[in-house]
Amino acid sequence: MRAGQFIRQVEGYRAFVPAPLPPDPPPVLDAETINLMSRADRALGRLDGVTSILPNPDLFVAMFVRQEAVLSSQIEGTQSTLEDVLQFELDEKGADLPKDVGEVVNYVNAMNFGLGRLKDLPLCLKLIREIHERLLRGVRGGEKTPGDFRRSQNWIGPAGCTLATAAFVPPPVHQMHSALDNLEKFLHDDETFPVLIHCALAHAQFETIHPFIDGNGRVGRLLITFLLCQREILHRPLLYLSSFLKANRAEYYDRLTAIRQSGDWEGWIKFFLRGVFEVSQAATETARKILALREEHRQRVKHQALLDYLFEQPLVSIHMVQQRLGCGFPTAGKYVEQFAEAGILRETTGFQRNRRYRYDPYLSLFESPDFSPFTRPDVDEGDAQATETEAGHST
What we know:
ATP binds at residues 76, 210, 214-221, 252-253. Residues 123-274 form the Fido domain. It is a single chain. This protein is 56% helix and 5% strand. It has 16 helices and 5 strands. Strands 3-5-4 form a 3-stranded antiparallel beta sheet. A two-stranded antiparallel ribbon has the order 1-2.
């Protein structure tokens, strides 16, 4: 009962009602946990420090945000890749893209919206609902009350399961609201636990409450980044755990289950800290490679404004360059060709008109295993079958 208890409902199924946070008794921070937390803190500090030496951090953050959106959405079964997202931004109507690319683009928009709102509004239930509404606006799950907490019972399990056969049933609605009120208070508690322990507890509790009909996993992963930024541990949103959780999906679900069944907060916290350390290490290395790449390419070309634009938008057309630089079309075309001759841009269409160009050296940093040892741009059949499902096969 440390983390809560399963309570049989009048309909016959058992729903889990979480105990309030913080856990009672509090998590035991043994020597292993302290060592993991120390390593994770140092790695996170190095990652945050990298942003101080980047010439324009916001240009680079955009790519990290897109990559996180792709990976977090792939956990929920989408097929879209980073390339698909960039193509969508380039030509939303004309490109032949997977239908679910809109879900990934919504994730990017929801993340950017939430980060902007944190400047005026602390992380709270109102902000969580606003993020959720933008996440599901006009895409799969858009009919499932975006921006509103559920008004009926949901459940988690394989497609076709029922409340009686579900792997996990979150708290009933009236107890869900009590748990959410407690979670909101805990989100504002910045004194009881170290930051990373605080993030670990909040994420797991949100996933247990499962307050929406759809989109819980994605919102829960966003909460981690929002908490780190709100607590000013990160000054730029560069840490995203989706690559780690995707690669360790079975253990991730097992750790959450162990909290509910035996109150094993300690095992979950160690797993979470290991993820923070490994992802921080990988992201720091990628940021350093970005900086080195920029310096190398600054030596090859004269037009620095166009080079900076490519770090923000690595798929471009001549028309886009014309608009960004405020020059004539022939001038923009000349600049683009100079970059192509220098090996920085590659023409991808083979057309004489409406040509598009790709900044291959930059994109390869995110598409190669070096970005993260866990990143893969595809979802296999096993991944799709393992996706959490709830009332109406929602995630």
